Amino acid sequence: MNPTLDQLIAQFTELIGPEAFAAAAAPAVPPSPPAATAVGTTGASPAAGGGVPVAAAKPAPAPAAPPPPLQATQHALKGYDLDARVAPNQVVDAARLLDRAGFAIDAVTGVDWLAQEEMEIVYDYFHPSQSLRMVVRTRVPRAAPELPSISGVFPGANWHERETHDFFGIRFAGHPNLKPFLLPEDANFHPLRKDYTP
Amino acid sequence: MIATRETVSAAPAAQGPQETFVLNLGPQHPAAHGVLRVLMTMEGEWIQRAEPVIGYIHRMHEKMGENRTWAKFLPNTSRIDYLSAMHYTHAFVGAVERAMKIEVPLRAEYARVITSELNRISSHMVWWGALLLDLGGFTPILYAFDDREKILDLLEGLCGARLTYCYYRFGGLYNDVDDEFLRGTRDFVQHLRPRLKMYRDLVTDNVILRKRLTNIGPIDAEMCRRYGATGPVIRGAGVPYDVRRMEPYSVYPRLDFKVPMYPECDSMARYLVRMDEMEQSLRIIEQALDQIPTGPFLAPKVPRVLRLPAGDYSYAVEAARGRFMVRIVSDGKEIPYRVRLRAPSFSNLSLYEEASRGMILPDALAMMGSLDLVIPDIDR
Questions:
Q1: Is B80 on the interface with A (CB under 8 A)?
Q2: Of A130, B16, B239, B346, which sees the most CB atoms within 10 A?
Q3: CA-closest candidate to residue B379, choices B67, B80, B29
């Protein structure tokens, strides 16, 4: 019930799968810095040093090379310790993994990336008996924003997902009650979409 | 008879099927502490299902965050949970300081701790008075507001506001803590200690209160975890989870205080956690008053117009009701790209449907009082 950061890194490396790491590590026009690929190719083993940032080195700012799907971050800089980018169909598995590890649901929210035509869904977790904060994020196409609900794993996510549906129009498949929540009962608008005009 | 799920589910079944009816509690019910509505499917006196209906005072603070600068959004944060304004502004300035890597002077950090803990006591005073009103005791709220008034006077002298304080600034404070405030706060600590003892004798050890709260509204650690309930709710379930310890911020690591924790999981445990917390807050204030150094109260060279480096940042504080987290996303412009406000009352109320199943109505209201809800905090 009290996982270490390294155990979490190993479990998430397995969950995300080698293909995603390979895709992120695939050299864009300039070769990406070696630090960013360390997690993808060798798992977490070389970084097993008591919470030392694994791949805190961000890709060079030049062309947007995709960031590594798993980054250990410094809490003092970011406010969380581990940041995982998963596929939309992996969010439930990620929630189950964190449920088994004793994490609690903190919040679920969306971010509308209008320019990239994507919606990002961010899941925050905290651990009730340990100083460990975890962020799981995924992106869905803006034209069809749908992904599975984690409310079966964490019932507390029920309300957060309803709120995210209100504000962004993101549909959570399998959610028991995706009615307007904070907005009026007949609301058919999503105010936090970047193209929303009142 | 003490209402537990077992006794309740057994009771109606013995008499064969019963008709149910829907009871609409609120949105202006006095026990709901604001415009909260609860749709209750009742089986006689027993609650079969209680569904909170929220959003009546939804103000869309998160959208407001996306159409004004970082500094202009700051006053909004004190209006989310208006009883716990200091903590909420602390989380927001903390997130921005984290992104900008602003070093806050030590004097300002100590002043933040002193004002935050004063605010925690004043918030718990309101909860205490209101809970006892719910339970039918009218007198305590008059005592609570008498003491709370002294805190409001102190904070008003400091920043001009009595409720929606906007005292913290990116990199420090709006103005320095003066000697009058420091002396007044020391006097207040001396004043409140015997008063808390009187509260204990007068109310906490009162047999009626004990009977109304003991073994009522069980919320265990596992339920807190699955719903993300924090603050006195999770500490009343035997888990010493406190953001001041788990994700230390400001100068809390330099101060010696206990995290009150009771393993009974009932409404009385949550009550006792808050009563103990007031004493711990006094301890923290006293130490901070002894340790507060002289020096600047605002970091130098904080730009007037902030452009945060692109990326996302989060900052959590222990507010009076639990974990309050701000998650901000910046795209490098003057205006936030996204501001997410994670409110403790929202998560604490979300477990109400499961926890109230099978309770009788007066007990469910006592449990709601022990959750210490602030509705604008839920609706944001």
A1: no
A2: B346
A3: B80
Is the pLDDT confidence value at A72 over 60?
yes
Structure tokens at A102: 């004793």
Question: At A98, which helix (H) or strand (E)?
Answer: helix A91-100
Superfamily per CATH, domain B61-378: Cytochrome-c3 Hydrogenase, chain B (1.10.645.10)
**Min CA distance, B342 vs chain A (Å)?**
6
For residues B204 and B278, give the distance between their C-alpha atoms in angstroms, rounded to a whole number.
14
Q: Do residues A110 and B66 touch, judged by C-beta distance below 8 A?
A: no
pTM of the complete model: 0.85
d(CA B218, CA B48): 16
Distance in angstroms (rounded) separating the CA atoms of residues B32 and B249? 33
C-alpha–C-alpha distance, residues B130 and B289, integer Å: 30
DSSP label at B308?
A: P
Tokens of B340: 């997410």
Instruction: Quote the minimal CA–CA distance from B350 to chain A in Å.
Output: 6
Structure tokens at B238: 């035997």
Instruction: Enter the tokens of residue B105.
Output: 């002077």
pLDDT of residue B10 exceeding 60, the answer is no
Contact B349, B370 (CB under 8 A): no
> In this structure, what token pair is assigned to residue B235?
């500490």
Q: How far apart are the first and last CA of chain A?
A: 47
Helices B179-199 and B267-291: crossing angle, nearest 10°? 150
The nearest CA of chain B is from the CA of A17 a distance in Å of 25
Q: Which two tokens stand for residue B39?
A: 């749709």
**Which residues, numbered 211 to 230 in chain B, qualify as contacts with chain A under a Cβ-Cβ cut-off of 8 Å?**
221, 224-229
User: Between B313, B337, B354, which is nearest A79 by CB?
Assistant: B313
pLDDT digits (tens, 9 = 90+) for A114-164: 888 899 999 999 999 888 999 999 999 999 899 999 999 999 999 999 999
Pairing of strands A82-85, A133-141: parallel
Q: Is A128's CB within 8 Å of B224's CB? A: yes
pLDDT bucket at A52, cuts 50 / 70 / 90: very low
Interface predicted TM-score (ipTM)? 0.85
What does residue A56 show for φ and ψ, rounded to 5 degrees? Answer: -65, -25
Q: pLDDT tens for residues B32-63?
A: 677 888 899 988 888 989 999 888 888 899 99
Which residue out of B66, B342, B379 would a mutagenesis test of the A interface target, given it has the greatest number of A Cβ atoms within 10 Å? B342
CATH 1.10.645.10 location in chain B: 61-378
Rounded Cα distance between A81 and B316, Å, is: 13
Give chain A positions within 8 Å (CB) of B246: 126-127, 130-131
Identify each DSSP E strand in chain B by its residue range: 21-25, 37-43, 46-53, 168-169, 172-173, 311-319, 322-330, 338-342
AA identity, residue B197: K
Place of tokens 């639990």: B322
Interface probe for B, chosen from A73, A99, A106 (most Cβ of B below 10 Å), is A106
Within chain B, what is the greatest distance between any pair of CA atoms? 74
